[in-house]
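Assess this one:

_____
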Amino acid sequence: MLALINLFFFINIFFLTCNQHGCLAQRRHIFIYSGCSQERYQPNTPYETNLNSLLSSIVASSSQTLYNLFAFGNSTGEPPDSAVYGLYQCRGDLKPKDCSTCISSLISQIALLCPYTSGASLQLDGCFVRYEETDFLGRLDDSLRYKKCSAGGGGDRDFLRRRDGVLAGLQGEATSAGFGVSAAGAVEGYAQCLGDLAAADCAACLGEAVVEVKSLCGTAAAGDVFLAQCYVRYWESGYYDDSSSSDSTNQDNVGRTVAIIVGVVVGVAVLIILLSFCKNTLCK
C-alpha cells in the first residue's frame, strides 16, 4: 500500500512540475499530428515482421543521420502483401543524438496511436515518421495534413511585410538546403521538406504551403501548415501561444491518452487503498 501511495504522490509531482516549467527540455517531443490508415494487418504475419524491422532500422539510423528511408519485403501486387515502405526525418537544426531521442519517443507512441494499421504517420515538434504498404517514397504529395493559427493577430502592414519576407526567405533556403530558418524583425520562422523530394518538388511543395498558411491563417500572428511532404511555420515574438491557438485540422492529442492512462492507474491505486483500509478497519 505504501508503494501505491508513493506512486500517486510521484504522478502528482510530475504533472505539477510539467505545468510549472512547461517541460521545456522535452519540446522536441511535443505531439503535432498523427494519421492512421484504414487498412490493418494481422499479428504474426510477414508484414508485421517487416514493419518491426523497418521501425528498428529507423531507430538505429536516427543516431547517425537526420533522414533516411527504407523498404522491407517483396511486393507482389496481390493481397496479402508483405512489403512495407517508410522514412523518418528530424528537424534540420537537431543533432543526431537529439534526433535519436526524438525518434525513439515517437516510435514508442505509434503502437498506441495506430495499433495494427498498415500505414501510419506521426509528427512531433522535432521529428517525423511515416510508413505505408504501398511505395510512396519520392512521390510528390502536397495534401494538407495539419494547420494551426494563433488566436491573436497583428495585421498591420509592417507585420505582413515582415511575415511575407520571412516566408519568401524560407522558400528559397529550404528549397536549396532542405531546411531553412528566416527572420525579419520580430517575425521568425522555419520550413522543411522531406529528404526524398527533388529540389523542384520541394519548391512546389513549399510554394503550396506558403499559399495555404496565408489563406488559412490570414493576419494571425503565428501559423503552422504541414503538408504531406513539407511544412512552413512562422510566428511573431510574444504572440505565439499554444494554449490560445484556434482551428486545427487534427484534434488528436497524445497528452489526452497519457492522461487517461495515468488516470486509470491512479484510480486503481486509490481503489486498492480504500479496499485495504476497509478490510483493516471498518470491515472488522
In short: The helical segments are 2-21, 46-61, 96-113, 157-177, 199-217, 254-282. The chain has six helices and ten strands.
